[in-house]
Amino acid sequence: MLHLLWTLLNTAVFVVFLITCFRATKLLRQELGLSTTLFLVFGILSFVSRSTDSPTAGRGAPNTNAQTWTLNPVDSLQQGTMQMVNVELEKTLLSTYGLTIRYQQGPQTNHPIDAYSVLTGLVGGIKWKPSDVSVVETRKGQFRYTVMGTVEWQLLGTTLYTEPKQYQGTVSVP
Predict the structure, then answer these.
(1) Which of 38, 108, 112, 127 has its Cα between 20 and 30 A from that of 45?
(2) How many domains, the chain?
(3) Range of the domain at 38
(4) Are 91 and 132 in the same domain?
(5) Same-domain status, 93 and 15
(6) How many CB atoms lie within 10 A of CB 19?
């Protein structure tokens, strides 16, 4: 429910911000002229459109902002079947914190290859930044995982609060 309220607050503040920008642009146009106003608007848009995230995605990650933790390099393992398992870490009203583990099936053991964690769904003003992902096989067909990270609660792109999160659990694999 908190995610929904935060998304609605972000949407409302953004709409008020847009209305204020249009009114300010109209006043500038009346005072300074069309060419000066267009120059200012394009200058501001060029700063706003720059991305501050560096692409640290690994193979298999769904977007360019997901960091992948390599647990066992693929070339260090024997030939086998690679599989993926998705784990739902936390489900809110609008979004889901998830973990994806890629592993290799072996005759006696399963070897985790890599893993990544993402926040999916409607996530207005909320940014999930995983800082560490650990996956180990506890017995044949079962992995134990630990995911640590922070949730940044943002208003118009400015972080107002940072919440640490940690998820632990086990997942069965075939």
Answers:
(1) 127
(2) 2
(3) 2-48
(4) yes
(5) no
(6) 10
